[in-house]
Fold:
Amino acid sequence: MPDSPTQPDIDLLAPDEPPPFFVMHAESRRPVLLTCDHASCRIPASLDHLGLDPFARRCHLAIDIGAGSLTEFLADSLGATAVLAQYSRLVVDCNRDLMDPSAFLPFGDGIRVPGNAPIRQAQKDARAQAIYHPYHAAIESEVERLMSYGRRPAFVSVHSFTPVLNGETRPWEVGVLWDKDETLRKAFLEGFRAEGYVVGDNEPYSGKAPADFTIDHHAETRDLPCVGIEIRQDLVRDAAGVVKIGTIMHRIIDAVARRIEQGSERRSA
Structure:
């Protein structure tokens, strides 16, 4: 099978390109860690846009629209640590196990990704080495730092979802994704429903599915209170929407953090 012409065998990231992640409030002691796996639509110059047109490079396949801005808002308003990925999920999806075929998505929602079909193992390894592993190492470092203060931090992974996928309209406005921990599930379900939102309990995706790699790998292995939050993209597409949703999420997370700080957090099986 021939190699993709859009993926030359050179260093993936040029010296003048951004690092694979950035950390906000790295010295914060608040028992909260925010992550955003799909915060950016940036593609390394060496990959020649993965062969995509400008629309495809900015669509929901390339980025969780609004999720990065929402994560930044929350980190600042809460004074909490956040780790955000700085390259598109189409380069490598940081919320997937590297053995998952969708970690290097070749096709989705009617869009073909030429730079990912075909793709050699050496090219996958180069992307993982440059972007995926450093991002997850940063999350690991922040989890360990926060735990060193003697508390189990709440782990909140922020995402957004497209209102229409494969021609089907999705009725939810917010999704609360969870698996083993129900502490944050209850807080977010009750918090958003009290504000009148249509909230999916493990919808439009399930936190019990193996695709939720970041939470599975960093939070569930340590028995941390954890949740994945999916916001419908039309609700956080602009600054006003980010502030509206972010203000609600701030109240929910701040209440959880205060309970942890007071040593009164509870977990239910």
